[in-house]
Amino acid sequence: MDINFSKKLTLPILVIIILLALSFSVLMPVLNMILLGAIFAYGLRPIANRLQSKIKFTSISTIIAVLLVLIPLILLLVYIVFIISGFAINFFNSNHATLTNFSSGQLSSIVAQVLPAQYHANIGSITNSLYSSLTSGLHYVINYFIGLVKKIPYISLELCVLFFSMYYFTKDGDKFWAYVQAFIPTERSEFFNNMFFQIENVLKSIFFGHFLTAIIIGIIAGIGFYILGFPYALFLGILTGVCQLIPIFGPWIIYMILVIWDLITGNYPRAIITLLFGIFLSLSDMYIRPALSSKYADIHPLILFIGFLSGPLVFGIVGFILGPLFLGITYAVLKSFKLEIEKQNKEKELLEESGEPGGE
Fold it and tell me: 142-177 b/e with 16+ CB inside 10 Å = b?
């Protein structure tokens, strides 16, 4: 089938394509924050609408809804940074003399005590390799934090874009949706409506089935660790929730480290209780996740697994959200297209059976 591109590619369409390409290049540095803001706005709209029934000003109700999400996230981030920095400062202060005077000779004596006697002949090369690795690792950590400090202006810009994206998508999301629908051909409206319905189910499935499950498991873990007497119980609960979010990890990483620590320090009763509590957390996930996500889209675990692991490599830390979301949306679009083809084939078969001319 020949297509006359000279008729299709008119001057207005060419101008639109060029402007879209230029606009995309402008948005590219902060595109992940814009997308993240749109995702958060999807969940914020019901809250903003409920607030608007009590507060007549749309802007004020939208700002309150955005702050209800942003303030806890900012406080959580500040708390994590505070705990990690405080732990690092206490560690370096307590071991300042040891770290300052630490040398390859001291490392050699430590390695000699750990390694069996048959390896002592090569202890020099082993010590040099370990000392070089430790030095390189320390330099990497220091350079990473220095680079993070240098990125503070850029991070502030991203947070600003995130805030305004959340605000305007929450406030004017219906207008944006109406604008998009204006470009959908009438004869394809059923396909796109079904596609958007599938995408909405994917969003709900990812949020309720995975993020909400991780939040619940993290809260239960934090309370349990506090009752068991572990220091930094809230921080451990947050780490448990984050590990729960990643399919290959789960909460067992955190509670097994605590069990091993208690075994090393001789606190055997708490080690047994912590192990039983950890098994309870893992079993809870098997009940909570299906109960929350079964009402919506049934996404194959491999899709979410790849999304959670590869998303951060592409989009940074927000990739934990964008990675599985993009793969889930792609799954929804393909599913809608599959349903559309099946529907067309079924209609064609019915026409052929009835012997109508349309089935030819």
Answer: eeeeeeeeeeeeeeeebeebbbebbbbbbbebeeee
Nearest to 289 by CA among 329, 240, 323, 247: 247
DSSP for 128-197, written as a single string: HHHHHHHHHHHHHHHHHHHHHHHTHHHHHHHHHHHHHHHHHHHHHHHHHHHHHHTTS-GGGHHHHHHHHH
Residue 247 DSSP one-character state:
T
- Tokens of residue 267, six digits: 């606190």
Highest mean pLDDT among 219-223, 261-265, 286-290, 343-347: 219-223
Q: Give the model's pLDDT for residue 334.
A: 83
What integer pLDDT is reported at residue 324 of this predicted model?
A: 81
What stretches of the chain adopt beta strand conformation (E)? none
Instruction: Supply the pTM of this predicted model.
Output: 0.63
Highest mean pLDDT (candidates 6-20, 56-70, 237-251, 261-275): 261-275
Nearest to 332 by CA among 214, 199, 224, 231: 199
Cα separation, 248 vs 257, whole angstroms: 16
Q: Closest by alpha carbon to 29, among 143, 191, 149, 161?
A: 161
Q: Which residues contact 228 (CB under 8 A, 6 or more apart)?
A: 270, 273, 274, 277
Name the token pair of 85: 């920095």
Cα 324 from Cα 219, distance rounded (Å): 23
Q: What's the average model confidence in pLDDT over 195-207?
A: 76
